[in-house]
Each structure stands twice: as structure tokens, then as C-alpha cells.
Amino acid sequence: MKKALKIIAGIVVGIIAFALLLVLTLPLWLGPVVKPIANAAVPKITKTTFNLGHLWLNPYTGRFELGDLRLGNPEGYSEPQALAVSNIVVDVAMTTVCNKYVHIEEVLIDGVFVSLVKGGENNVDNILQIQYNVAGGKEKYEANQARAKAEKEARKDKQEEKPAEEPGSGKKVVIDKLTLNDISVKYGIITIPVPSITLTDLGKESDGMSLEDVGTAIWEAILNAAMAVGDGAKALGGLIMSGAGAVGDGAGKTVDAISDGAGKTVDAISDGASKAADAVSDGASKAVDAVKSLFK
């Protein structure tokens, strides 16, 4: 489950980086051209279906819009979609592009769906299989991962300086408001809804934050929301079990009361019948004595 939530956080960061890249580097007229290029190129890379329904950007106002994004799963998976996003809006304050950080006024993402299922020939996660496809195979993916890990450790050991900042990657950002609505994660055969999430003033106090840190903040918020749903379900389950126990206890006491009452009633009837029988027996005995006295 945590892996699926990390995927969502990564997607959000990727969308922000992509929006910054386009807004900061593309002229206005290239916006409509990106959509058909993406729809033609992405399937060749991911080996899956892909659809980008709407893409609009205005580098003068800094507004980026994207809609109806769908990435399919590779062949051999029961779930057709790996990722779907209904609507994305990113508003960038263009006057801050040359500042120490880029000021993003709002990020709004609606209708996020991510599936994490196993399938295919090797029974691996769908997201991992897509990563294999993008890298050109499992061996190349693992080699790339090992190389990236080695390079990261080498930079850490040598305390090398970070590479020059690039638009949408190393550039720090401040985000006034980030909202995620209608999130759902399909984990195996179970679809889990996650409550809407709103984060404000990201990077404001620290004079900007990296997209990696933004991703961490988003992941933690999504994880906390998902855990809150889980805790709520557990609490509800506890209330149901407690209620069932109370009903069972009450039913038991009711049965005991009925049983006790019935027992007392039976005892009373039995006692009354016994006394009546004694009275009849006594009366009959006296009547016989009276008859006998007449013939003496």
C-alpha cells in the first residue's frame, strides 16, 4: 500500500516538474503540438496504451492545464489502467522565474487513480513492469538502478556539489496551495479511496524547497490520510463488534429472565396443582367418612 501512495506522490511531483518545464521553456504555439507527440511517442516507450486528452499552457500567464490522462497496463494484467488523472491545473507566477525560487500559486489535481497489481509473464507489479519497458528490459533497468545508486554514493562520499539547476528539476519552489481530490488506489483486488488533501505554504518558511522535498511532504500527507481511513474503519469495526456484544449480552439476559420467569411460573402452577390435588383428596376423604357414618 505504501508503495502505491509513493507512486501517487511521485506522479504529482512529476506533473509539477513537467508543468514547469513546459511553462518555462516552450513558446505559446507549441502547446497544442505536445499532445499528439505525446500520444504517439509514449506507447512506444512504455509498451502500453496512453492517452492525453487535453493540454493547454500559456507561458505569459504561467497557467498549465492537463486533462484526461490515462496510462494503460502492459499485457497480462487484469486491471486495464495503471494510472488515470482527470484534471490538472498549475498556476506559476512568471515574475518569479528568475528568482531564487519559483512561486507556484496553486496546484490542483482532480481524479487520481493508481493501480498496483501483479501479472504478466513474471508475475511482477505493473508499475515495475512499465519501468522495465521504459528502460528497455529488466537487465537494463537493474543496471541503471545500480549505476544511479553508485553515483549517488560517490557524490555523498566526495561531498560533491549539486549539479547546476535545471528548469523543473533542481529549481526550488514555493507552493501556496496544493490540492488533491478524488484519490483512489487499487491494491490487488481492493480499491481504497483516500480523502482529499490540501497542503499550503510549502517551502514558504524555508525560502523554497526542492521537488524531492515536495514529494516527501505529499507522500506523508497521503499516507496520513490513508491511515486515518484505516483507523476509522478499525474504529467502526470495533463499534460494530461492541454493539454485537451488547446485543448478545442483552439477548442472553433476556433469555435468562424469560427462562427464570417461565421457571417460576411452572413452579407456581405445579405448586397450585399440588395444593388443589391435596384439597380434592382431603375433600374426597371427608365425604367418604360422612357416607360411612350414615350406615353405622
SSE map:
Blueprint: H1 2-25, H2 31-46, E1 50-58, E2 63-72, E3 81-92, E4 101-116, E5 118-119, E6 124-125, H3 126-135, H4 138-158, E7 172-187, E8 190-194, E9 197-202, H5 211-294
Parallel strand pairs: 4-7
Antiparallel strand pairs: 1-2, 2-3, 3-4, 5-6, 7-8, 7-9
Describe this structure in words.
With 296 residues, the protein is α+β, with helices and mostly antiparallel strands. It has one domain (2-234). Helix content is 52%, strand content 26%. The protein is built from five helices and nine strands, in the order ααββββββααβββα. The strands form two sheets. Strands 1, 2, 3, 4, 7, 8 and 9 form a seven-stranded mixed sheet that branches. Strand 3 (81-92) and strand 4 form a beta hairpin. The radius of gyration is 37 Å and the shape is globular. The N and C termini lie far apart (107 Å). Mean pLDDT is 76; it is low at 164-169, 231-248, 265-270 and 272-296.
